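Exercise 7. Given the components listed, write out the predicted structure of the assembled complex. Treat all entries as one system.
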Amino acid sequence: MTSFLRSIAAEFAKIFTTRLWWILALVLFGYIGLLAGGLAALFSGLQSGVISPDTVNTGGGALSGFGSLPPIIYSFASSVGYVFPVLIGALATTGEFRHQTLTPTFLAIPRRGVVLGAKTVTLLLVGAAFGLIALAASVGIGGGVMSAFGVDALLLDSETWLLVARSVLAMALWAAIGVGLGVLVPNQVASIVIVLAFTQFVEPLLRLAASFLEVTAKIGNFLPGAASDALVGASIFTVMNPAGAAPLDWWQGGLVLLGYALVATVIGYAVSWKKDVS
Amino acid sequence: MPTGALIEFTNISKRFGGVTAVNDLSFTVEPGRVTGFLGPNGAGKTTSLRILLGLVAASSGTATFGGVRYRDLPHPLKTVGAALEAASFHPGRSARDHLGVYAIAAGLPRTRVLEVLTQVGLAAHAAQRVGGYSLGMRQRLGLAYALLGDPGVLVLDEPINGLDPEGIRWIRGFLRDMAAEGRTILVSSHLLSEVQQSVDDVVIIARGELVHLGPLSSLDTDAAAQTIVDSPDRENLATALTAAGITFTTGRTGLIAATSDPALLGHLAFEAGVELSVLHRQKAGLEDSFLALVGGGHSL
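Answer.
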C-alpha cells in the first residue's frame, strides 16, 4: 500500500477510535429529524387542512410561495445540518494540534502534504456519511410525517433522489471546509467559535442583508451557505427570501464550496501544517 | 535483528527569530552503544532531537541516519523509534487504539501493538483510555510507540522523567539490552546522575553549543579536585593557609582548600605548628565535572 492509502486508513482509524463521531452523528440525526418531522407536520397539516391556518397565524396565502413541500423538508439535512460536518472536520484537524498528535503522525508519515491530503479525503467520506445520516432523518422522518398527513412525499420522483445525491456531496464538501478551517485556525476553541458564530449568526445575517440590493445579492450567492443551498437546489432560506437574485446553478454552487475548501486548506498548510512541531 | 544506523549531526543551527537555540552542533552517535545527550533545561536538546526527526526545520546544517534524512527514510518507524518529551496522545483514545492508528499509518502488523504494550508492561491497561494514565504510564506508552516498528535506532527525550524507582531500574536494563543487540541509542537528560549507569558515551551541550564529547570516563577528571582540612585550632590553620596564598571556603567538616595536593597542606600545618584533625583529598564526581562543563567558561 502506498503511504497515501495507509495515511487514509490511519485517518479513518483516528476518527472511529474516539467518541466524537457518534455523538455528533446522533445529535445530527435527532436535530434534523425533529426539525424536518416538526415542520413537515406543521406544513402538511396546513396543506391538508388538518391544521387551520388561523391557529398558526400565517395566513393561507404564504403557503403557495413554498411550492413543493418535500424538497424544502428534505434539504434541512444540509441547509441546517451542514454545521456538523464542518465541526467534525475542524475538530479532526485542530485536535492534532491540541493533543500534540502531529508528532507521532509525522514520525509515522513524514510527508506532511500526504497526511493533509489523506485527512481531506477521509473527511470528504465522513462528511458524505454524515449527509446520509442527516438525509435518513429528513427524508425518513419528514417524508413519513408528510405521508401520514396524506401529502405526496415524492419518494418515487427522481428529482428527490437527485436532491439527496447533491446533499450528500454538499455535506462531504463541508467536512473538507472544516479541515481547511482547522489548519487555518489551529486553535481548537477559536475554530469552534468561528464555525458556530459564522454558520449560526454571521452568514444568515449577511445573506439577509445582501438580498436587499441586486448587486449585493449576486455577491451573497457566493457565501458558502448560499453556494451550498444552490448545490442542493432547495433550502428553507431561499424560500424565505424569494426576492433575492437568482441563485447559482447547482454545479456552480458545488465549485464555490470546493473552492472554499481548497483555498482554506492550501493557506492553512502554509501557515500551520508545515511549520515546526514542538 | 535490526541493526543500528549511525546518527550524524552536521553543523546544525536553529534560530527562532533573533534567538539562537542551537549553534553549529556537530557530533555522531555510534550503533551498539548508549549515548547520553546531556545539558541543562533550555540547552537545546529537544530542539536538536526534533530537527533530527524532521519535526523542526534546521536553519542550517543536516542531521541524518546512516546518511539519510528522516523524511527520506523509506520506512521511518522501522528504522527509527522516537519517544519525545511531550505527551502526544488523544486522551479519549485507548493505548491499543493509539498505537493501532500509527501501526496502520506505518504499514506494521497489528500484532505489534500488543507485543510492544507487553514489552513496556502496559498490556493490562491496553483498553484503558490514555486520559486516565499516570505520567509514568504515559512515558511507557511513548516508549511503546518508539518500539512499534522494532527499529535499529532509538531516540528518547527524557525517558526517565516521571518514572517510579522500579520504572527507572527497568529502563536502565532496557537501554543496556537494546544497545547490546547492536541498536543505536540516543537518550537525552538534564541530569547526568539519571543516566550515568546506562550510558557509554556522552554528548554535552549548553546554550545550544557542544561543550563535551566522549566516553563517560572522559568526565572522570580531577581538574576540579579539592582538599578538606581541619584542625582543633581552625583559626591558626586558616591563617597559615592565607599566608601561603591558598584560597579556601569554610565547610561543615572543615576548610575546603582549592588544591589537589594534601601533602602541601600537611607541610604548611607542620611548619605553622598546627595540629590536624582532618586531611583528605576530595575527588570531583562526574556530576561536578558535568556541572562545571555546562556552567563554566561562560557567565550565566
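Discussion: The mean pLDDT of chain B is 90. The CA atoms of residues 43 and 228 of chain B lie 33 Å apart.
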